[in-house]
TrEMBL record:
PANTHER family: BETA-PINACENE SYNTHASE-RELATED (PTHR35201:SF4), TERPENE SYNTHASE (PTHR35201). This is Terpene synthase. Residues 1-11, 43-55, 93-102 have a biased composition (Pro residues). InterPro entries: Isoprenoid_synthase_dom_sf (IPR008949), MIB_synthase (IPR047945), Terpene_cyclase-like_2 (IPR034686). It catalyses: (E)-2-methylgeranyl diphosphate + H2O = 2-methylisoborneol + diphosphate. Its EC number is 4.2.3.-. Its cofactor is Mg(2+). NCBIfam families: f2_encap_cargo2.
Amino acid sequence: MPAPEPSPPQSSLPAAASRSGANVLSEAAARAHDIKAATAVRPPVPSSPAPPPVDDIPAAEVRTPGADVERILRGPSGLGTAGLHLARREEPPTPPTPPTPSAVPAEGNPIPGLYHHPVPEPDAVRVEEVGRRIKAWALDEVDLYPEEWEEQFDGFSVGRYMVACHPDAPTVDHLMLATRLMVAENAVDDCYCEDHGGSPIGLGGRLLLAHTALDALHTTREYQPRWAESLHSDAPRRAYRSAMEYFVQAAGPSQADRLRHDMARLHMGYLAEAAWAQTDHVPEVWEYLAMRQFNNFRPCPTITDTVGGYELPADLHAQPAMQRVIALAGNATTIVNDLYSYTKELAAPGRHLNLPVVIAEREGLSDRDAYLKAVGVHNDLMHDFEAEAAAVAVALPVPTVQRFLRGVAAWVDGNHYWHQTNTFRYSLPDFW
């Protein structure tokens, strides 16, 4: 089978619009010709989240009657929304100050033939500050890891990861909401499932108890203190508890509940993979893809509105078309992880399931051909994601929908950027 072309396929969008996946949605929004359609969707009901834990997260906006309709007609405002307006404004927007680029572009080569959108280098000032704060949180607030794990923690480069994935975050404090959750989720994966003492044996009990740090136990006075004490018993639970406490102070109730449900999905995916490991079972390709729809990055892009300082109303988030967009985004980004972590997992003890391994086993392909076929699966998912997101942008020309879709697309792009550039963790196989 011939190797794919060394450069990624180009988007069918005009060159100026194809620089990032989020621009796909701007293109679609521009085709929404009837702004009155926006008022056919029930206006969002603003929530009243508790005051945020830091000073630089803006307070919730107080709205007057009719403000939602006026806001829809006016279009969104704030960092990252200049391209979302559905009608021409009288005055052109003031160009935003461009972010400070990193002094030296990050290293790493993209997978040849992998469909993706390059992103600008993340703001170096934000990257450094997020990195400083997350390390202080990990060490001082939740006692996350022992000294011998420090190199791995630093090599994860979570500051660069989250700044790349959330370019519209108004402040560093907003970025920290996502960063704490990302680190906590990886602590659970590493300590319960994978590298640092993880095992499929007993995983269900560990995950359920950890999940109560996100979705609190409501029980009698006799047993409540024992549960509360248990949340400090290990690093994953300490991290979950703290990250969620910060999150709920900045998020609306429906946003917090959305995250709880997405985390339950993630944990169910962990359990399926663990069950297969216990029985040494290699699933069919479609079964593996079903597992990866749950054991994937979904909880990360779906908090883009909280990190962006706004809220996608629950009824719009629950629309079947929106749910399909979110699922496709999560599935595509997770296959990116399978592809970039391929050599890392091959070098680890035991057999690690990923899409190339499952394709090779189940379809009788060579390692190289299975890997290249997995690249094609990713590309198909990406094209479907972009097409479905553009369709939703046209069908629901509501500013919060437009911005949410752009945020998910930006997360997809930033996730690829981080995998490509994190040469501390990942290297490509010699298939080209």
